[in-house]
Amino acid sequence: MLAVLPLLAVLSLPLRSGAAAASHHNCNAPLVSSLPHSSFQSSSQSSVGYAAHNAKLNRRDGAGGWSPMVTDQEPWLQVDLREQMEVTAVSTQGRYDSWDWVSGFLLLYSDSGRAWKQYRQEDGVGRIVGNVNSEAVVQSKLSHPVRTRFLRFVPLDWNPSGWMGLRVEVYGCSYKSYVADFDGRSSLLYRFNQKSMSTVKDVISLRFKSHQTEGVLLHGEGQRGDYITLELHRGRLDLYLNLDDGRVRLGSRRVAVTVGSLLDDQHWHSVHMERFNRQVNLTVDAQTSSFQTRGDGHSLDVDYELSFGGIPLPGKPGTFLRRNFHGCMENLYYNGINVVDLAKRRKPQIHSGNVTFSCSQPQLVSCTFLSSSSSFLSLPPPPPASGGFSARFQLRTWNPDGLLLSLQLHPGPQTLELQVSGGRLLLGLHGSGRHRSEATTGHRVSDGLWHSVRLDTRNLHISLTVDGEPSSNIELWEPVESRGNFFFGGCPSMNCHAQIPSFQGCMQLIFINGQPMNLSLVQQGLLGNYNELQLDTCSIKDRCLPNLCEHSARCSQTWTSFSCDCSGTGYSGATCHNSIYESSCEAYKLSGSSSGFYFIDPDGSGPLGPTQVYCNMTEKKVWTVLSHNSSAPVTVQSSSLQKPHVMRLNYSASAEQLRAIVSGSEQCQQEVVYSCRKSRLFNTRDGSPLSWWLDRDGERRSYWGGFLPGVQQCSCSLEENCVDMNYFCNCDADTDAWANDTGVLSYKDHLPVSQVVVGDTNRTGSMAVYSVGPLRCYGDKSIWNAASFYQESSYLYFPTLQAELASDISFYFKTSAPSGVFLENQGLKDFIRVELSSPSAVTFSFDVGNGPAVLAVKSHLPLNDRQWHYVRAERNVKEASLQVDQLPLLFFLILCLFCHLYLVFVVCLVFSFCPIFVILHLVFYRLSCFLILSHFCCFLSHFSHFVSVSFDRESSVTYTFQEPFSVMQNRSSQASSVSTDSRAREDVAFSFVTSQRPAMLLTVSTFSQQYIAVILARNGSLQIWYHLQTDRSPDVFSPALNNLADGRLHRIRIHRVGKNLYIQVSPESCMLKYTLSSDAELILIRSLTLGKVTRMENLNEEVLQAASKGFIGCLSSVQFNHVAPLKAALTNRGSSLITIRGPLVQSNCGALAESTSHTLQGETHTITQKLPKFMEIVQKNIKNAHDVFKNCLKLQNFVQNCLEHGRN
């Protein structure tokens, strides 16, 4: 019996994420203040009054806080929370009434108090800012909650005029934990009530920790060929998922989706998998991978059972096909079912084999060697049980070279050195003079995984074994013994035989002569010695996750950095950011090239790759020619509407590349030749098409020539030269003689032709011969643009640009002014600026979170000589560079590899000279300006959001943020999350053209009956409705009282912070400020809808009327916070997140937005006329480039408040 699990049944299952015992709606309770003295420990204390238990916030016990001994080289303060807690924030304070405080610290956490992990913020930074005096409390909210029992505060910086002093508090709540311990031979089997379970949606969540790199977490399969497997492999998480893919049954190799890295670190990791039909989201910790499953099915059919912890053979419990999981799982949920809880209560549907319900996994204590020049660990060897010596340990590193072990041998002088060389182990025995013996292993150990190493002396040879593989040996002439200490990871210079870099990485399970080495005694100074060593933790990081190399370049890494292999990508630079090809044929001609085949990169350093085209460079125009797979004429017979002839055209470029080339060109065209004999294009009785073609979006088109679409005619009708003027096409005359209809398609939004369908050649004597020419485009809109700046107060004002990981700016300029700012983008803390700092110097300055950096290129000739000069500046996560003309390229190394550049204000271009040519490329935005006879024009394209769509009355696009199933599960975790800014925020922007009123433009709804609605009222005025509290009437604002249903383009921007609401309707007005009646946030956002709303509760009558009328017109450049719903609708058709109702046609109806750059000039002049006094103040304050920058920010504030000032 096959049971299909209904979707509604899945949605009704109770879900918990951690099953909070305390209220996650208020997970910020103080956890330290009530702890006993025994919960506090420290590395040392200055005296009894400075003990660790005195370190409670705002307390004055003892000496008023904790302070370590002045001789303590690695101080720390540790807090035991007595049980597993969810920690959301920490607070620090200096020692009471003293000059002792900590200004920066690290936060470590642990389940056992032995193996520690460092807390890092989302940008990878581990340092937390502390105090500036002894009394003020500084609270640091964690960007992601930490579930732990032990916390350790490690001071980094303190008051230079005093000493370390610390009082702390920890905030959070308790949570319910359901734990299962798998010993490597155990499993949990969840058996279905039916023979087979079929689901169209699955949600699986769990947390796990392990010290093994391999192991199956979950497996299920069905007789139809479906399967799901979640397993650890080489410390990463692999998901194998198949829905009715018959190719797998034929023996094809299974393909995994891999997420995460270094997951065998004995710390908890969160896994969340959601599948709806074929769409899957797999999240491990904070990394998410989204993909579509293989196969043709939409449901997952699993027979009998799901197994957790391994893959048992049918009928043989306890035997496994693959290595089973060894570690702990916590809060394991399958479609809302708490599997561990069922097993713990011995429910009949759960079979538990040797699973225990407490996590007893051993905590292996590690140490980290931090420095490649000075780290070492010196340990005295215990006496061997019988002659010789032995050593064994586990290592983990990314570095290809480093000294692992060095020791002196007796009889001497002999030195034994074990090192990583070229990623493999090399054992060397150095005797007197130049005598040297070596042994190597073929096993690569610099892959970030744990490797076991064993060194033994026996029977006159020294053997080296790695991971249990066959040993490598060095032969001896006589027995040897160790003399003195064993030096791990490096050694003091006087003890080293050769200059080998110290080991950077982690070690654990160190044994000498068969005895374990207690690293706790090392930390207490009771055993051995060490330098540049971090005990109790392995601080390894995967710098290639996420892969910061762009354009699918291969990432490799060392302990401190990463590098990118750009081979075969078509890009160059430290992160493979810069395209090695020109962006268009026009650019190739400007560089002096002639006609021929070239690779072009239509979006420069953007995400699209290069493609090969033919550049036909004539005297008047430069044509870009893209061919397809059917250039020869095609003969068609015996086709009908029931069985038409279909030809699919495959081009030499991808659909995205074709779209970029077409949109960036001035004009494109494609010739279609249709020769016919008794083969009509249109039915002469009702005019319905008998043959047609499909555009680039797969939409049917039946016009056969001309610029304007929609008219079912051929070129002969448009030119009034058809053979029979009773018909609109020559072929529609339907004669026995050959006729021809040839047309040139030139409507860009429909090009290129993707398919040709012929349906009228099934009659006696019928035949058609057609051919489709290549796509031909000319002109490059990103090159020939210009801007001129004639006075010091001239500037261009553009929307906020964000360059998180990489940005490049290039432009030409000429001027006679001695200085001026080319471009400036200022955020709360981050900024970027390019300026002419002196007549012969260009400066590129920026701050990405680790302090300001400045690059300056000086020329031996003046740059203000009224001649064109080229500037190119680039910043990525590895380096920054500045190029001026042909002068040497200047580099600056960025040490903060995970710092992102967030620019939250406006971009302000300020110049005291003219003219200027700018090409700016920041992530997905391009701004291009060029001089044309000293006139100004500017082209701005938003590559990620600039999408235009035509709606009719029944059209709507709905973007679903969260479905009820996932919302129920995540409700508690969302409510408990701690934000860096507690105030609610929304950012909305879109453009529209319509003549309809009333009309529904946009609605945002939540599961808690809140909504935002943007409508046009019956008189055409704009109304914005905010309904944040369901027990109150909604707030209604009318920023534009005039009729906006006037067929013109209008741009709406809405920004909310708490109760403050900022609205701009351009080009009608500047930014207006309103105050809401509530600062409540939108709780559990359900969806965003553009156009007609068919079902929505709790709407006001006026909003409901607009919702029922829908929207007729054009919507473009729609953005809500980080979501671009129109782009998502057009590029992810079929996604479970997108619902499209009614006809939806992508068009160029939003191309009028380009005129906003011209309108912007008018706004600037209007502003100047309204407030000449303000502009006079600004101009007086501009004395140099730095003053220009400051006044740029003043101008931003001025623009936002200009209307209310202008009326005064």
Automatic annotation (TrEMBL):
Keyword Repeat applies: yes
Location within or outside the cell: Membrane
Domain Laminin G: 179-359, 366-538, 785-937, 967-1149
Domain of life (superkingdom): Eukaryota
Domain F5/8 type C: 27-173
Protein name, as recorded: Contactin associated protein-like 5a
Claim: Secreted is one of the keywords in the record: no
Residues in the signal sequence: 1-21
InterPro entries: ConA-like_dom_sf, EGF, FA58C, Fibrinogen-like_C, Fibrinogen_a/b/g_C_dom, Galactose-bd-like_sf, Laminin_G, Neurexin-related_CASP
Membrane topology designation: Single-pass type I membrane protein
Residue stretches making up the Fibrinogen C-terminal domain: 576-628
